[in-house]
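Collaborator request, handled under Task 6.
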Amino acid sequence: MSESSAHRASLAQALFKPDSIALVGVSDDPGKTAGRPLQYLRQAGFAGAIYNVNPGRETVQGEKAYPSLSALPAVPDHAFILTNTELAMAAVEECGRLGVAVATILATGFSESGPQGVEREQRLAEIAGRYGIRILGPSSLGVISLHNNLVLTANAAFAEPDLPKGGVFCASHSGSLIGALTSRGRERGIGFNGLVSVGSEVDLSIGEICEATLDDPAITGYLLFLESTRHADTLRRFAIAAAARGKPVVAYKLGRSEVAAELAVSHTGALAGEDAVADTFLKDCGIARTDTFEGLLEALPLLARVPLMPAQRRPAVGVVTTTGGGAAMAVDQLGIRGVNVVGPSEHTLQRLADAGVHVAAGRIIDLTMAGTRYEVMKATLDIMQSAPEFDLVLAAVGSSARSRPELAVKPVIDSIDGGKPLACFIVPEAPEALRRLTDAGVPNFRTPETCGDVIAAAFQRRWPATVMPPALPAGEAMALDEAQAYALFQQAGVPHAPFAVLDPDQPVPALAFDYPVVAKVLDKDIGHKSDVGGVRLNIADAEALAAAMAAIRDAVQGRLPDTRVSRILVQPMRRGLGEVLVGFRRDPQVGPLVMLAAGGVLTEIYRDRALRLAPVTLEAARDMVGEVRALQALAGFRGQAKGDLEAVAEAVVAVSRLAVLDDANVLEAEINPLMVFAEGEGVLAVDALIQQQR
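Structure tokens returned to the collaborator:
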């Protein structure tokens, strides 16, 4: 066993299979928050030793109590600290001195409570580093491992006994949500393997905890409730390993509302946006992100049957139904999420007719009442699952699912192992039909919204790249001027327009390129040149260039009195078929990102862009080109001339290499615009910004 495997096994043992537990500050009242864990552990039948620590009592809930951790007859594997904030700090310190493997902290009052709380978290991190103890929380409601009869939690939802056991492992930033998930999961027949309330992640993160469970064969998939993407490196490492093992991961992440990102010198930060970055991160890690809470619970059966793709593509779904209106609701929800619902081909229609199934050509195969007969629905599903035009088949079942559940869903159940992934949307309220589908392992949905949500999330995942760029060492940010930026972009493989650097106070020399030209102020501290009057276009000759440079100098120095304009960058005026923005930035949470967007001054308004974790492959860059709506005009739309979109994709790949370019230490970079010429004629960078780390 490798050192990393041994570490994961040791952590999993202490978290989910401890031989002994200490309940520090446990209450004698089982109705109180601090009294629940003892009650739940006994109720679940936990077989290990339980040590009750309460300095004010000799017994707790009828069991022996000890005055301190040091007074215990043995060092426990796991301590659940149920005290207030200050006493919790002392208890963690004592756990560290004694050699306790894991301490879970229930208390709040840490970073969320202001500077004093931040200082407490720093002290916890120092204790963890000094003693090697692992800390879960603070603000953690505990851990549950149903197969090990471990219900180590203060969550009142776990007073309910006999939770269904299964293969789903759930990790949540919110402790209360694990109770909501189990109660909702019970109604949907979902069995859990384990659940963990992660809290503030002062030490153990969601990614590291999930990673520790990967080699458990009883765990078949992961369900995550995320409030942030802190510790993205461990989450990404876990996701890569989960994909390699064929264990699907689904997440519900808070924060869909847009929050402006901090800007450096470019548009890239504003265009990326906090939630768009998180969304890209999850998809590029192969994690399905659902928009609905119900979708979070219902996604794993479908994810297990829809393979991860090397790159994103628009899937094609075939829909068969016994109720046209019900199916139309699902089609609508799929459509607004970018999932393409396609009708059967002529060949498929003929095969259906040959089987005695006569339907009209259209986007939905509506069997009407005939579809309530087993042989009709089964024959239709068999043909659709072997038809090449469909990536997934969705069966929408109407009222018969409620009136005759034993018959209505039987053809769907009997088709689950056909040639294509299959899912079922039950239109009426039909719990018995849903239960039968769930028991048979058929992905099924109660609402059209959840149906569309989960199918879209399944196909929007991308196979995770295994290249994880190294983090940059600490240092200060330093801007490059445009000429220096061109040199670094050229090193990465991005072509740029030729240029000359001139002094506005000197005579204009002969240029190595023809007029007309553009002149721009060249200063590393001036990112957006046009905002300070630092750009002049369509300069016809040397005399006009001298005048333009003087005008730039006067305008910039007038607006920025402390700036001395001594250098002007001059380039030939070039006209392409279009222009785009290619950006790069190191997000403080998820790491390097590359972005492709519609170029020009209105870029931030339209927000027409594609994002990926960097570096990217050429295939991924081509997908990004396809996602930017404005670039459809350069793809020969309505007979227009085609732009060199392959060269655009190659430029995106080159910019993304800044993530791994030796000694470049690039924090943020942008080409705006990248001029796009006719097909086969390439692209050119005609403006560039870069910030490096010293």
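The cover message to the collaborator said: "The first helix runs from residue 3 to 16. The chain is about 35% helix and 20% strand. Please let us know whether this matches your experimental observations."
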